[in-house]
């Protein structure tokens, strides 16, 4: 109500300023406009905090030891090391409840960091002899064990210095929906890669890439141990 009242007052004083040409009315209208913007921002911040708190309460309903929540509160990744379970929570709107998909650790097959459609890091069960579903079924020529966001050895062939979209892609044991995408950045307008904001986002994306990579490789090693022990 206060915001509507301030907006109405601003309109009145702008009308008076236009009719009379008096500077005082213009100054009052500007002051009221500033107050209205302050109240609008305060209300928006309060609403965002409410949404985030409600979202965290929903996440707490699922067992987990680690989680990450997207900035728009529409996605969350959860790792439960006690039950060896990986979960992704998704929804279309913040007013909706999350839909959860969960997988045992051994059901995770691949993870990649994808920047504007290009894989800049990939971990897959099978190493260099495997086949990447993320790459559309192509052969994995090089197995990437990790990605250093600060590395000075990045390919000089990359001419594009801006990015619009950054995400993690996972391949899971799910015939109906084998590809999971978790969005870290999705802008209509590209932002420079050397921007601190992007570096921070990429750093967080890399951390989760590394966590999931460890899970994949641990379970790959367990599978090999089972096969060897069974043969022996």
Count the strands?
A: 10
> Which residues form runs of ≥5 with pLDDT under 50?
139-147, 151-159, 225-232
Query: Which structural class should the secondary elements be placed in?
Result: alpha+beta
Summarize the biggest pleated sheet: 4 strands, antiparallel
Strand content: 25-35%
What number of domains? Answer: 2
Helix content: 25-40%
The run of helices and strands is: HHEEEEEEEEEEH
Question: What Rg is obtained from the alpha carbons, in whole angstroms?
Answer: 25 Å
Shape: elongated
Give the count of helical stretches.
3
Largest sheet: spatial strand order: 1-2-3-4
**What is the CA–CA distance across the termini?**
76 Å
Q: Average pLDDT across residues?
A: 80
Key phrases:
four-stranded antiparallel sheet, disordered C terminus, 3 helices, elongated, 28% strand, alpha+beta, 232 residues, transmembrane
Walk me through the structure:
It is a single chain. The protein is an alpha+beta fold and 232 residues long. The chain is built from three helices and ten strands. The strands form three sheets. The chain has a four-stranded antiparallel beta sheet with strand order 1-2-3-4, with no helix packed on it. Helix 1 packs antiparallel against helix 2. The protein starts with a helix and ends with a helix.
Concise summary:
The protein is an alpha+beta fold. The chain is built from 3 helices and 10 strands.
Task: Spell out the blueprint of helices and strands.
Elements: H1 2-20, H2 23-59, E1 66-69, E2 75-80, E3 85-90, E4 99-104, E5 108-115, E6 118-124, E7 131-132, E8 138-139, E9 162-172, E10 179-192, H3 196-231
Helix pairs in contact: 1-2
């Amino acid at each position: 109500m206060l915001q509507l009242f301030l907006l109405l007052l601003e309109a009145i004083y702008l009308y008076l300023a236009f009719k009379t040409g008096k500077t005082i009315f213009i100054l009052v209208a500007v002051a009221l406009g500033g107050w209205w913007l302050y109240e609008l921002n305060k209300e928006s911040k309060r609403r965002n905090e409410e949404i985030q708190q409600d979202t965290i309460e929903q996440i707490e309903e699922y067992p987990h030891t680690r989680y990450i929540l997207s900035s728009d509160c529409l996605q969350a990744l959860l790792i439960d090391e006690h039950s060896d379970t990986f979960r992704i929570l998704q929804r279309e709107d913040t007013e909706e409840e999350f839909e959860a998909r969960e997988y045992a650790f051994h059901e995770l097959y691949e993870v990649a960091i994808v920047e504007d459609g290009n894989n800049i890091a990939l971990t897959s069960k099978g190493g260099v002899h495997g086949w990447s579903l993320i790459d559309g079924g192509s052969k994995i020529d090089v197995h990437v064990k990790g990605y250093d966001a600060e590395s000075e050895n990045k390919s000089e062939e990359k001419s594009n210095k801006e990015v619009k979209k950054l995400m993690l892609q996972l391949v899971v044991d799910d015939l109906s929906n084998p590809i999971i995408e978790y969005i870290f950045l999705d802008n209509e307008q590209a932002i420079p890669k050397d921007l601190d904001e992007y570096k921070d986002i990429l750093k967080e994306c890399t951390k989760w890439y590394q966590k999931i990579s460890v899970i994949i490789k641990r379970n790959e090693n367990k599978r090999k141990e089972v096969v060897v022990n069974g043969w022996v």
